[in-house]
Design brief:
The complex is a heterodimer of chains A (about 290) and B (about 350). Chain A is built from 11 helices and 4 strands. Chain A is mainly alpha-helical. In chain A, the strands form 2 sheets. In chain A, strands 1-4 form a two-stranded antiparallel ribbon. The termini of chain A are far apart. The model of chain A has no long low-confidence stretch (mean pLDDT about 90). By secondary structure, chain B is mainly alpha-helical. Chain B has helices at about 1-10, 25-45, 50-75, 85-100, 105-125, 130-150, 170-195, 200-210, 210-215, 220-245, 255, 260-270, 280-295, 300-315, 320-330; strands at about 20, 160, 250, 340. Chain B has a two-stranded antiparallel sheet with strand order 1-4. A two-stranded antiparallel sheet of chain B has the order 2-3. The longest helix of chain B has 28 residues, at about 170-195. Classes of the chains: A mainly alpha (about 290), B mainly alpha (about 350). The interface of A and B includes residues 91, 93 and 107 of A.
């Protein structure tokens, strides 16, 4: 029963990972940019929510929206001012831009808020749970995050496959030159994609912060690894693969923690490397976005 | 008859081979100058006091590290975020080697070879990924190495450890450490230079410019990249050993396995000029001076470093040295071939 519990907790944890990875996957699928600052943007999302809750006294539930709006807006600025230019230079330049951002964000956070944990409490919701069996309890909040992850992924799916804008985004991912010939400004598509991806990662970061009860500046160095691992485990460009990848990583970590308290990170990384060696195309190695 | 024979010759084929030259005077002067600088640097412990050489140890391993990252990203197109794996392994392998009775200075050579050997199988995992995913993949590998190393109590577990046997006399130890650092830097620089002037270097420059085109022309792309990955691992391990000797041990595994080492390497290479032998040296000097004068101004200085990396890669993509070399055609370590003149058949 403890193992079943570990697996269940892992799946619940996987929801946040999947959500974080969705934005990464989208940016890579459409713009071919691997965002090294992804983890730090997640953490930034957590900080924005925390500041909104603690200093501006905005209800905790609404801080999610504040954080999504702020980081989404930042995504627009970064895309228009930095990434557009970098993408025109080389494959290397966008990587360096996101690398630079990943250095700037945590250090600005340290300067503004020190190294201490920035709290974001969710009150009794954090501990409330549903008892399923004698040893198995499902927390309400983790459950909410999984539902949110599925909703985000489903929303992205509907957007990409059922709307005109989504069609344009997919077309741009396929061939930006042809899309330009059809009269679409690909830079606007990139800006839209960035806003969606950054807002998603802010949501993931805020929920992550709520789950942990707080956030520290350098945690992005950890979460960026999780996000990339999830994308690769699930298969590049596959949204449902991303959900599966999140679950696999979550289960690996929580089963690892069940074996020994100092194992979760190592277990997660090893499962990732094993998949890389034995199934490099990922669990769902179909390219959906491009 | 003669007319037909001429028609067979491809119209583009020159009847006179073009004269190709590499380096020339600049190469001789550059190499002589470099050797002179190295000689002067080597004699410093007799001339100046310990304070100067202590600082220069840092400059030496920074240059070695930057050169290694430049080999990876600038010549073989591999943006690694995980070189700290080999820096850390270098430091920790030095403990093992030292515990077996080899002194730390000769041990650095052993460490470099051992870590290069470890990097060989690791490359098969890392090479599953490309571009930005390669970057994060190598980072994960570095984390795995760290998490495994901290499980060994004999290596100090999560709290770091000290070197058991090292020269006791401080002045002598400082001089030895400095010479070790200098030797590692010289080996990294000259090794890079000689490798790039060899057949491998030609392959690598082709891979750097266009991997697919290089492959289609018969360059063994994966082999070239693997050699560089392994060599860079050995170089980073040597630098890691220097860092370890310099601080008489490792303060904590998370420090020596910290991603900030790779971040520094990226910064130095991008600022100095990626894909040039001289660039990393310039970048390391820039960082060294920034660190010396601004490190006390706290984290803002790291923010400036991040911003500078962005600004340079957007507005000066060749870096400081690369821009200068591109405008003037000047090189201290010339690795490119220059076509002096071609005589076309119809002109001859």
């Amino acid at each position: 029963m403890t193992w079943l519990n570990a697996i269940a907790q892992g799946m619940l944890l996987g929801g946040i990972f999947a959500m974080a990875a969705a934005g990464l996957s989208l940016v890579f699928g459409v713009m071919r940019v691997a965002n090294l600052a992804h983890g730090d943007l997640m953490i930034l999302g957590g900080y924005v929510a925390s500041v909104a809750a603690v200093s501006l006294h905005i209800p905790v539930a609404l801080t999610v929206l504040v954080s999504m709006a702020a980081v989404g807006g930042l995504g627009y600025l970064i895309q228009r001012t930095l990434l557009d230019r970098a993408m025109g230079l080389s494959e290397f330049a966008p990587l360096m831009v996101t690398f630079g951002i990943s250095v700037i964000i945590p250090n600005v956070l340290v300067q503004l808020f020190s190294n201490d944990t920035k709290p974001l409490g969710i009150g009794s919701l954090g501990t409330a749970s549903i008892r399923v069996g004698s040893d198995l309890a499902i927390g309400w909040f983790p459950l909410i995050t999984v539902v949110a992850a599925v909703a985000v992924l489903a929303g992205l799916h509907v957007f990409l496959y059922r709307t005109q804008s989504g069609r344009i985004v997919r077309a741009t991912a396929d061939d930006r030159a042809v899309v330009r010939l059809m009269g679409v400004d690909n830079r606007k598509v990139y800006a839209l994609t960035s806003v969606i991806a950054f807002a998603t990662v802010a949501l993931a970061g805020t929920l992550y912060t709520m789950r942990q009860g707080g956030v520290t500046p350098y945690e992005g160095q950890l979460t960026v690894l999780f996000a990339f691992e999830v994308v690769i485990i699930g298969g590049l460009g596959s949204l449902w693969g991303t959900l599966a990848g999140g679950m696999v990583l979550g289960i690996a970590q929580s089963v690892g923690a069940q074996i020994s308290p100092d194992l979760p990170l190592l277990a997660g990384h090893l499962v990732f490397l094993a998949i890389l060696v034995f199934r490099p195309q990922g669990l769902f190695g179909r390219s959906v976005l491009a | 008859m003669t007319a037909q024979t001429t028609a067979v010759v491809s119209p583009a084929a020159p009847s006179v081979l073009p004269a190709v030259r590499r380096g020339g005077l600049a190469a001789v002067l550059g190499l002589t100058g470099t050797l002179l600088v190295l000689l002067v640097m080597a004699s410093l412990p007799y001339v100046v006091d310990n304070g100067v050489t202590t600082q220069l140890v840092k400059l030496c391993y920074l240059i070695a590290l930057a050169s290694m990252w430049n080999l990876l990203a600038g010549y073989a197109g591999m943006v690694s975020m995980g070189q700290q794996a080999f820096i850390g392994l270098g430091a920790y392998t030095l403990f093992v080697v030292n515990d077996h009775g080899i002194n730390v200075y000769a041990g650095t050579l052993v460490v470099s070879a051992v870590v290069a050997l470890i990097a060989w199988p690791v490359s098969y995992i890392a090479f599953r990924l490309r571009g930005g995913y390669f970057a994060v993949g190598t980072w994960v590998i570095a984390e795995v190495v760290r998490l495994i190393v901290v499980r060994f109590d004999s290596l100090g577990a999560a709290s770091g450890r000290n070197i058991t046997t090292i020269t006791a006399e401080p002045v002598l130890r400082q001089a030895y450490t400095y010479w070790l650092a200098l030797a590692v830097m010289a080996a990294a620089l000259l090794g890079t230079y000689l490798a790039l002037r060899s057949r491998l270097g030609l392959d690598l420059q082709a891979i750097r410019d266009d991997e697919t085109a290089a492959g289609s022309l018969g360059v063994n792309v994966t082999r070239g990249k693997r050699i560089i990955y392994i060599a860079a691992a050995g170089g980073c391990a040597a630098a890691g050993a220097v860092i370890c000797v310099n601080s008489l041990g490792v303060a904590s595994p998370s420090q020596i396995f910290g991603v900030q080492y790779t971040a520094l390497m990226i910064f130095m290479v991008v600022i100095g000029g990626i894909g040039t032998v001289e660039g990393p040296v310039i970048g390391a000097l820039v960082y060294f001076l920034l660190d010396k004068y601004f490190a006390q101004s706290g984290v803002w200085y790291l923010v400036v470093i991040g911003a500078a990396a962005i600004a340079v890669s957007l507005y000066l993509p060749r870096g400081l040295w690369g821009t200068l070399a591109h405008r003037t055609g000047f090189a201290i370590f010339p690795v490119t071939h220059k076509v002096l003149q071609t005589t076309r058949r119809d002109e001859a």
